[in-house]
Design brief:
This protein is mainly beta. It contains 3 helices and 16 strands. Strand 12 and strand 13 form a beta hairpin.
Length: about 300
């Protein structure tokens, strides 16, 4: 199976809240009448207002622990999380859910709606909370998608939300390299200006060609340290046809062998440019840490 050539950060709660608008009840296909929602999706009794004992933050978010978690680690920075959630308007109508059977999804802090990001940063794995989010913190400033990218119309103004969220697992993000802006003198350069620093030597004499399917682990940053895509967070590599890759990748990968890990400094002209047409991709010079896992 071929995976999509990009592992964009930020699916999950932010995306679903933007593109899902569920009613408070389902339509029964046989009778064409409103049917009650499953018990797990029914709004809690305090959906309209947080109870007095809820934790209230300076930003206006209110939270109450429903189930305690374990451990001491909290998601932070560019970390992502595996979570499940259900969100309602304050009148009890359902807005969105990760799944009617408690299914999970992946959400990165950098693209979560601000109110949820604030709650997640204080949670630990296994913890479940009710979160009351004011409208001004219930929007997504940036939503990026794994795989094929879609540009949506601007959403309607968000309502106040009440969200039941469970943090299942923390997916730690790789830290940005210290040398984001200037490659070391030991880095080699391609004719188009891509700088390559070998981090781990690979094995074997063979190199991929433009017709090769390459399997890669990689993380990409802007030069100001913003992580915008990573396969290491998701826990599985990506496979793509080398001839369709980013120009800077096409410069570097034919020089690599299996198992080799490199750091790439790619000028904007060999990436997405200084003013990308697609708003979901980063502008300017980019830095990648990349491992060639396999090719065929």
């Amino acid at each position: 199976m071929r995976t999509e050539p990009r592992a964009w950060l930020g699916v999950g709660l932010a995306s679903l809240l933007l593109i899902t608008a569920c009613g408070a009840q389902d339509i029964d296909a046989n009778t064409k009448t409103l049917a009650p929602l499953p018990a797990g999706l029914a709004a809690p009794p305090d959906v309209a207002d947080p109870p007095a004992e809820a934790i209230k933050t300076a930003s206006g978010v209110a939270m109450m622990v429903v189930t305690s978690g374990s451990g001491v680690d909290h998601p932070a920075g560019d970390d992502c999380v595996v979570l499940s959630f259900t969100a309602w308007k304050r009148d009890g109508s359902l807005v969105s859910t990760s799944g009617r059977g408690g299914q999970s999804t992946v959400q990165c802090l950098s693209s979560a709606i601000p109110g949820i990001a604030e709650a997640l940063r204080s949670m630990v794995a296994g913890e479940e909370r009710h979160v009351w989010i004011p409208a001004e913190l219930a929007f997504a400033a940036h939503v990026a998608h794994h795989g094929t990218k879609h540009v949506h119309e601007e959403p309607a103004p968000p309502p106040d939300l009440t969200v039941d969220v469970k943090l299942i697992r923390i997916l730690k993000a790789p830290l940005p390299p210290a040398d984001l802006t200037t490659p070391p003198r030991t880095a080699s350069r391609t004719p188009l200006g891509v700088a390559i620093q070998v981090l781990v030597q690979g094995t074997g004499p063979k190199h991929p060609s433009m017709t090769s399917w390459v399997t890669l682990e990689y993380s990409g940053w802007t030069t100001d340290g913003k992580l915008f895509e990573s396969t290491t967070i998701s826990g599985h590599p990506a496979t793509l046809l080398l001839g369709t890759a980013l120009p800077g990748w096409r410069e570097a990968l034919p020089r690599m062998v299996t198992g080799e890990k490199v750091r790439l400094w790619i000028p904007a002209a060999e990436a997405y440019g200084d003013r990308p047409v697609e708003r979901m991709v980063p502008a300017g010079n980019l830095v990648y840490d990349m491992e060639l896992v396999a090719f065929q």
